[in-house]
Amino acid sequence: MKITNTFIRIADDSDAAMGIVPKVKPGKPSVARMHYDLLTDHPYEYDLDSFNFEIWCQRNDIDAADRESHREAFFSKGHPCMRASPLTKTHGFGAHYNYAGKIAIYPVDSKAYHKLLNDPDNKVEMAMRSNRPASAKATAPAPAGRVHHAQTHA
């Protein structure tokens, strides 16, 4: 399924009042930083499948020459959309899929973010929450334990 003309707004439990650039850490970069770098360096160049594949290849140190051999295995499984990205969940960035399904990010404190949020041509979806709402935690039933039923033999 190709996502087009859709704007992912920041999660309602995000504390971000502005776009927060993910920190650079020693060693391998975080997923948030990888998402940020790729989408700021290449706005509207990647659709969701190519974006997820590129991130996976970077995380797994797959050389460009070897990528085709990994493509089929990668796409045999499902992968998350930008609603699950740390950028939209906690870092204060909205994600826009244009008419061709290509992705770009916008900080919540930008004019472009609010323009896309209010554009009638866009379907607006909220990023996934990082935590369950307090009301759901209080009312959720405790998970049932394993129950052993004795069997009778005739």
| Envelope shape | globular
Oligomer state equals single chain
Largest sheet descriptor? 4 strands, mixed
| Strand residue content | 5-15%
Q: Would you list the SSEs in sequence order as H and E?
A: EHHHHEEHEH
- Helical content (DSSP H or I, runs of 4+): 25-40%
Terminus-to-terminus distance: 53 Å
Number of strands: 4
Mean pLDDT score: 84
Low-confidence stretches: 137-154
Structural class label? alpha+beta
Number of H- or I-type helical stretches: 6
Give, in spatial order, the strands making up the sheet with the most strands: 3-2-1-4
Rg over alpha carbons: 20 Å
Write up what this structure looks like.
Helix content is 32%, strand content 12%. It is an alpha+beta fold. It is built from six helices and four strands; from the N terminus they run E-H-H-H-H-E-E-H-E-H. It starts with 5 loop residues before the first strand and ends in a 15-residue tail after the last helix. Helix 2 crosses helix 3 (67-75). Strand 2 and strand 3 form a beta hairpin.
Question: What's this model, at a glance?
Answer:
Helices cover 32% and strands 12% of the residues.
Describe this protein with a few key phrases:
single chain, 154 residues, alpha+beta, four-stranded mixed sheet, 6 helices, 4 strands, 12% strand, globular, disordered C terminus
